[in-house]
Design goal:
Length: 216
Amino acid sequence: MSFFRDLDYRRQRMVASQIRSRGVSDERVLAAMEAVPRHLFVDEALASQAYEDHPVPIGHGQTLSQPYVVALMSSLLEVHPKDRILEIGTGSGYQAAVLAAMGAEVFTVERIKPLYQTARNRLLALRYPQVQLRLSDGTLGWPEAAPFDKIIVTAGGPEIPLPLVEQLADPGLLVMPVGRNRREQRLVRLVKRAGHIQEEDHGAVVFVDLVGAYGW
Ligand code: SAH
């Protein structure tokens, strides 16, 4: 089996054994994660780790989340084709590509310039034109492109940034790791519907810091 066929096989196995088996059943999420070549979103030297059950370092002290965490957060967003989704924390661009593969229009913000540049080049090369990138403090959102049907924050902060709540459409869903303790957060889903806001707890997670005006 060639190296590349082997990676395709490992990606299918990743979806079956780490994601479907742990209860993620959203077929759009499963199909997107079978399709997006996760190994191309990390350094070549780490490509063989891309389908393992853990996060992968992407430089600058940041990480690409574990596959199951990407799947869980994507399924909590209940993505429909044409949804306008704001992501805070572009990182490698993988999560944005997964959402784009589900048919969403993605707006993603990163604060570290080299990560932003690498992700932009990668998403262009892999042909994800439905992803727009921006270099700035994502805790302030992306006011010019608001409102968003869905918002996903892929870094952990002490509270949900107010500008993001304001830029969320009604109805809308926002998913973010929230924790007063920087080493552990709860995965929170905020549901906005008919003028009301509700928060749900979806378990313990560990993310890198959300840094910025409404972050650490
Ligand atoms: N979603 C990414 C992984 C994110 S790691 C992926 O699929 O690869 C978290 C990222 O959030 C890091 O790249 C970090 O630089 C970024 N980040 C942290 N605070 C931020 C902020 N205020 N605005 C934008 N990006 C931020």
